[in-house]
């Protein structure tokens, strides 16, 4: 029963345009950020002699640019996951879906698995953009791209995993908030304003930074293992980030909790 449900969920995503529209925006956005930051710090390195005077230390510059796929790009798989669920409510597609597969938990599990795959695809697109633009600009300024380092490729692989988990988190959010407009507003407000503000504020107190490590975006950066603008701008301040596996477990736990809550709050309700 699972494989037919999984194939049906994949087919639903492929028959819409939203997945490739979001993928294109992701690539353009991340390439702009990675390339733009690379150009900025590359210019500073030439004019000031040391990147550290105007930005992060030289040895973490490349990983920071490559990790921008997680720091700035995670909103796109979250939106994809949420839209995959809320679209079913909006277009009243759940009734025929549940008639074909009466086990609603199986349907939600198949949808989560499908979005895990599409999230990984988004991750591949995202790291191609961040590494391609970032490494290209670094090479242009004669800076080390670190592409000959195995740790860099491990970071890239974990970036793909991070975006895959974010897509499943989006499924949970969509199930928990079935109204499509409300889900989009909540996702954009949290990812673009609330969490960035919190991460910027907590850097300036050790006790707050210890708690800030457990914010979803901070956990995502920890999973990738890349420094971000939120933890490189104030030397000596803040707390050590989580280990990569702790960040991964935290994201996986968040995805599980949101999906279970969504299942009991709205997914089990009568949709006729």
List the topology elements.
Layout: H1 2-14, H2 18-48, H3 58-66, H4 68-71, H5 75-90, H6 94-100, H7 104-140, H8 150-176, H9 180-202, H10 206-212, H11 216-224, H12 244-267
Helix pairs in contact: 1-7, 2-3, 2-5, 2-7, 5-7, 5-8, 5-9, 7-8, 8-11, 8-12, 9-10, 11-12
Keywords:
272 residues; mainly alpha; 12 helices; elongated
Report a brief summary of the structure:
With 272 residues, the chain is an all-alpha fold.
> Which percent band covers the strand fraction?
under 5%
Distance from first to last alpha carbon: 23 Å
Count of helical segments? 12
**What's the β-strand tally?**
0
Explain this structure to me?
There is one protein chain. This protein is mainly alpha-helical. The protein has helices spanning 2-14, 18-48, 58-66, 68-71, 75-90, 94-100, 104-140, 150-176, 180-202, 206-212, 216-224, 244-267. The relative contact order is 0.15.
